[in-house]
């Protein structure tokens, strides 16, 4: 709410009246005076009442002073209007009021002249400019309040600073005031910039910590631990640039795998428990059967002895009947046990099959997390598995085995020019073309953001160079389309043949160094690795 205004008082007396007064009805004048007080939101002090009254009827002091008072009240009214409606002219209006109070007519003339100049369009703060200025100021205030401050709500200091600055801009009603606000704005941007880079550093540190944690947990796990595949997904996501889409994808995949694994693990636990129970029961029935058989043997032996000792036919008849009874009961025992044993064997077989099925499902699920979710090439884990398999096969059959490290050329520029999503699509395209060009026995793995590794089993280095060169050529034919525009993707590659007993790490290091040579010698080419790097030697 605007504060109540004070109307200038003390109308000066002038020597000669300048115009004749035509006084209206005093009641009407009083009503009009009160209306103007209310309209202009002016404090109803006697002085203000007097000033407005005189503004309507002219000064009342004396007829001689009437002209002077009229001029004075008209000018005072003008000054008041300017103060109320043109804040940018407030200083000139105040100077005019002071000149009126001091009856300094020369000064009055000068101030009125200046006000006229300022009110002229293009005259420093003319009405057109005042509006533009006001609009711009309001725009800046809104930007600060709704655009900047809301983004900084998590940082109370910066939030308050922005709000204070918005208030200062809103109140700045002169060029000088706006200049001051502008210097506040500059200092605020410096703080925001510092804050943003601090947040970015924090994010980077957290990411490194997470990566370290994931790597260390990975070290502690057995090869076939469930967690490893899941950790690989997290690792892939946090190694590349943090993108909300990739993070959401990784989260979704992890949740799915964890949920399915919990279901399968539960089923596996139940099936194992059933098998154990069945086996226990099977063994106990076997021992029952053996025991029953034993009892029968012993009874037969006892009856045979009784038979050998007796000569009495009646006794023999009784023994025979006993014997038949025993035999019948032994037979039915044995049939029951046999039937039970068959039933239990079937149940055990069923449980074992179920377990096999569940294990198969688990293997399929862990294959899921051997893949890079974006390009569907192998991830680090998939690469490790395939490398180990191919290396041992090459040793067993004494066959050559090569790898190629590929790094997309000028990928940063492609991202910068066409956006990150197009960059992603380009990587997906590269893997698709590579899969089409390579043999079924070859494998492609993503080992970095825009870096890939191809495993070429049963391939000497010269042939590996040809394969990779052919892939380069096919990329010029199967070009990548971005918004129907052909984009040529090229890569530099380093090829190395595995030496007997060479570790995966050492072989990749050699291929990597050849890839760097390809980069440094002009890109879009293939270089062959030197025989051995110092760290790979021995
Ligand atoms: N779109 C996209 N960009 C990625 C991904 N991973 C890494 N990058 C970006 O790839 C770029 C690689 O840049 P650099 O290492 O300078 O390589 P380059 O621009 O290809 O330059 P040269 O290798 O010398 O030809 C970086 O800007 C990374 O942010 C990804 O998954 N998707």
From TrEMBL:
EC numbers for this chain: 2.7.7.65
Single GO MF annotation: diguanylate cyclase activity
GGDEF domain residues: 399-531
Catalytic activity, as annotated: 2 GTP = 3',3'-c-di-GMP + 2 diphosphate
Leader sequence segment: none
Stretches the record annotates as Disordered: 1-21
InterPro entries hit by this protein: Diguanylate_Cyclase, GGDEF_dom, Nucleotide_cyclase, Rev_trsase/Diguanyl_cyclase
Family matches, as Pfam families: GGDEF
Protein's name in the database: diguanylate cyclase
Organism: Thiobacillus denitrificans (strain ATCC 25259 / T1)
């Amino acid at each position: 709410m605007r504060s109540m205004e004070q109307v200038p008082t003390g109308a000066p007396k002038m020597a000669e009246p300048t115009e004749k007064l035509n006084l209206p009805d005093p009641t009407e004048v009083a009503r009009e005076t009160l209306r103007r007080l209310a309209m202009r939101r002016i404090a109803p002090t006697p002085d203000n009442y007097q000033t407005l009254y005189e503004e309507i009827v002219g000064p009342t002091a004396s007829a001689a002073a009437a002209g002077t008072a009229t001029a004075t009240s008209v000018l005072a009214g003008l000054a008041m209007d300017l103060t109320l409606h043109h804040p940018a002219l407030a200083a000139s209006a105040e100077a005019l009021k002071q000149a009126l109070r001091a009856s300094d007519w020369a000064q009055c003339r000068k101030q009125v002249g200046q006000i006229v100049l300022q009110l002229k369009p293009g005259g420093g703060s003319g009405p057109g400019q005042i509006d533009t200025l006001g609009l711009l100021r309001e725009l800046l205030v809104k930007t600060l309040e709704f655009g900047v401050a809301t983004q900084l709500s998590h940082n109370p200091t910066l939030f308050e600073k922005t709000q204070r600055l918005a208030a200062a801009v809103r109140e700045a009603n002169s060029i000088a005031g706006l200049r001051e606000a502008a210097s506040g704005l500059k200092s605020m941007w410096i703080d925001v910039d510092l804050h943003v880079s601090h947040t970015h550093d924090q994010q980077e540190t957290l990411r490194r910590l997470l990566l370290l944690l994931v790597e260390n947990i990975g070290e502690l796990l057995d090869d076939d631990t469930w967690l490893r595949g899941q950790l690989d997904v997290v690792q892939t996501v946090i190694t590349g640039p943090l993108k909300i889409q990739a993070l959401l994808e990784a989260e979704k995949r992890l949740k799915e795998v964890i949920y399915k694994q919990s279901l399968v693990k539960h089923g596996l636990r139940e099936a194992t428990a059933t098998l154990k129970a069945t086996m226990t029961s099977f063994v106990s029935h076997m021992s029952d059967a053996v025991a029953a058989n034993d009892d029968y043997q012993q009874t037969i032996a006892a009856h045979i002895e009784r038979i050998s000792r007796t000569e009495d036919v009646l006794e023999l008849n009784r023994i025979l009947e006993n014997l038949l009874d025993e035999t019948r009961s032994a037979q039915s025992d044995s049939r029951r046990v046999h039937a039970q044993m068959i039933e239990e064997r079937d149940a055990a077989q069923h449980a074992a099959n179920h377990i096999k099925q569940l294990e198969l499902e688990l293997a399929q699920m862990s294959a899921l997390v051997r893949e890079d979710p974006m390009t569907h090439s192998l991830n680090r884990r998939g690469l490790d598995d395939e490398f180990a398999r191919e290396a041992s096969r090459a040793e067993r059959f004494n066959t050559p085995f090569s790898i190629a490290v590929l790094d997309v050329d000028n990928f940063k520029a492609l991202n910068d020019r066409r956006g990150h999503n197009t960059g992603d699509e380009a990587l997906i395209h590269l893997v698709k073309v590579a899969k089409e060009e390579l043999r079924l026995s070859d494998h492609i793995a993503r080992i970095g953001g825009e870096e890939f590794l191809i495993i070429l089993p049963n391939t000497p280095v010269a042939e590996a160079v040809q394969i990779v060169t052919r892939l380069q050529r096919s990329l010029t034919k199967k070009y990548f389309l971005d918004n129907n525009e052909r984009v040529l993707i090229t890569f530099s590659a380093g090829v190395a043949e595995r030496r007997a007993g060479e570790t995966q790490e050492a072989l990749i290091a050699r291929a990597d160094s050849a890839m760097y040579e390809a980069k440094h010698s002009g890109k879009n080419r293939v270089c062959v690795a030197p025989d051995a790097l110092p760290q790979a030697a021995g």
